[in-house]
Amino acid sequence: MFFGRVLLVWVIGFSCLLSFAFGATILPDDEVEILRQIAKKLGNTNWKFSVDPCSRQGGWVSPSPNPNDKLPNGVTCNCSLVNSTGCHVVSIRLKSLSLPGVLPPELARLPYLREIDLTRNYLNGPIPPEWGSMRLVNISVLGNQLSGSIPKELGNISTLVSLVLESNRFSGVLPPELGNLSNIERLHISSNYFTGELPEELARLTKLKEFRISDNHFTGKIPNFIQYWTNLEKIAIQASGLEGPIPSSISLLEKLTDVRISDINGTGTAFLPLSKMENMNRLIMRNCNITGKIPAYLGNMEKLKTLYSLSLSLK
Ligand SMILES: *[C@@H]1O[C@H](CO)[C@@H](O)[C@H](O)[C@H]1NC(C)=O
Ligand SMILES: *[C@@H]1O[C@H](CO)[C@@H](O)[C@H](O)[C@H]1NC(C)=O
Ligand SMILES: *[C@@H]1O[C@H](CO)[C@@H](O)[C@H](O)[C@H]1NC(C)=O
Ligand SMILES: *[C@@H]1O[C@H](CO)[C@@H](O)[C@H](O)[C@H]1NC(C)=O
Ligand SMILES: *[C@@H]1O[C@H](CO)[C@@H](O)[C@H](O)[C@H]1NC(C)=O
Ligand SMILES: *[C@@H]1O[C@H](CO)[C@@H](O)[C@H](O)[C@H]1NC(C)=O
Ligand SMILES: *[C@@H]1O[C@H](CO)[C@@H](O)[C@H](O)[C@H]1NC(C)=O
Q1: pTM: predicted TM-score of the whole model, two decimal places
Q2: CB 305 within 8 A of CB 282
Q3: What residues form the membrane-spanning segments (predicted)?
């Protein structure tokens, strides 16, 4: 009886020791080495390599300097992935740290990485084409000094749900391969120097919920194919370079809650038939060469909080 209890305690104690000794929460050496190379490329000195990266200690998890960032910065590991033993890096979040480096191609050597968030740093240089081999879900490099065009290889990331490239110095035309991002819900590329027409292949992005392309140098008309984006909730096309008219097929997008279209030249349109969009919350249409009457249905948009529709030529 007494002996039995001692044995039980001993067995439990030993198995705890075992799981510790065999590293139930310890990152394998090869991934640690890759993190070392990544830190060097980013110019990140916040990680202490004397401490296990999965321990959430030693600078591997820390609050973002920006109090508006809800999630902490850091490296997240998952030690219970399906079909895989040991721990692996699944997310790297380094926001508002003034990182001075470049985007590391080495990220592609972390096979379980699903999220990269490098929002608001001073990173420069291009997006490495190597990233195209990853199975990422979320990418954000918002608010850096990145340049070059979007590599066509990014179109290979069929798992991608959110791509945020806003407020950088990206240029060039959008690669048609972006039309292969069949799971994408959020595409934010405002405030860059993109040129050319929107590729027709984007018509296939039918899961899109948010599309933002404001403040760019695109050419051509606002494409009629946006009518296929029937899950669209938010759209921002302000001073994008695109010309009107705003296609009337936008009326098919009944889930829209936030529409910001402004500063488009070209043929005028009548006020859009948006009467089915009962959840409209914000509607900004400024300098869009809209003519005609303000439609009565605006009075039925009960959730509408903001309406700017200046520079209309009303009759
Ligand atoms: C780890 O991955 C598994 C399988 O995808 C998932 O069920 C689990 O919630 C993840 N654990 C953590 C801590 O993220
Ligand atoms: C795990 O492996 C099995 C058999 O190879 C496969 O059918 C399944 O899709 C895999 N699961 C994941 C999440 O990769
Ligand atoms: C992607 O980002 C969303 C929040 O925007 C989050 O809920 C989700 O868990 C992230 N996915 C991964 C795989 O990190
Ligand atoms: C992208 O996918 C194509 C095939 O669809 C493949 O030939 C190419 O090597 C892939 N590129 C990368 C960077 O993974
Ligand atoms: C990706 O897009 C390109 C150009 O639109 C196309 O030629 C290619 O076949 C697509 N690849 C895959 C794997 O769907
Ligand atoms: C629209 O036309 C005006 C006047 O011709 C021009 O100054 C402006 O740059 C044009 N805007 C765009 C977005 O093309
Ligand atoms: C507005 O549209 C009319 C035709 O509907 C066109 O004549 C005029 O040039 C357009 N104005 C601008 C600023 O593009």
Answers
A1: 0.88
A2: yes
A3: none
Per-residue model confidence as pLDDT tens digits over 226-254 = 999 999 999 999 999 999 888 888 888 99
Q: What are phi and psi of 54, to 5 degrees?
A: -90, 0
The label of the residue with tokens 């609050």 reads 63
> DSSP assignment, residue 288?
S
Does the C-beta of 148 come closer than 6 Å to ligand 4?
A: no
The residue whose CA has the least distance to atom 4 of ligand 2 is 83
User: Locate tokens 């590391």: which residue?
Assistant: 104
**C-alpha separations of 252 from 42, 177, 240, 303 in Å:** 44, 26, 22, 19
For residues 244 and 136, give the distance between their C-alpha atoms in angstroms, rounded to a whole number: 35
* Nearest atom, ligand 2, residue 82 CA: 13
The first and second tokens of residue 141, run together, are 């490099």
